[in-house]
Amino acid sequence: YHTQNEKVDIVKYFMTIESINLNLVNNNGESGFYCACAHGSNENVQTLLSDPRVDITLSSYYNWSPLMIAV
User: Fold this and answer.
1) Helices (H), 1-71
2) Whole-angstrom Cα distance, residue 61 to residue 48?
3) Is there a contact between 42 and 68 (Cβ–Cβ < 8 Å)?
4) Angle (nearest 5°) at CA 58 between 61 and 49
5) Is the separation of the CB atoms in 67 and 36 below 8 Å?
């Protein structure tokens, strides 16, 4: 939710917590990075890309990748 609504401050806060799993997915298999790409949240996409813990290759359960959904 926070990645798709430009809540970049909340995303940045979550990223400061080392034990947090930044690759959790929702019921459709969509990660926060996927949702940020899907909703055109450019600032959140850039913020998430800066963290090596974020798996940018995670596809949804429908086999859509973040890159596919962004274009």
Assistant:
1) 8-15, 32-38, 42-49, 66-70
2) 21
3) no
4) 145
5) no
Give the whole-angstrom CA distance, residue 29 versus residue 13.
Answer: 23
**Residues 6 or more apart whose Cβ sits within 8 Å of residue 1:** 7, 35
pLDDT along the chain (71 residues), means of 10: 68 94 95 92 93 96 93 85
User: What pLDDT sits at residue 20?
Assistant: 94
The span from the CA of 68 to the CA of 65, in Å, is: 5
Task: Report how far residue 68's alpha carbon sits from residue 15's, in angstroms, rounded to the nearest whole number.
Answer: 24
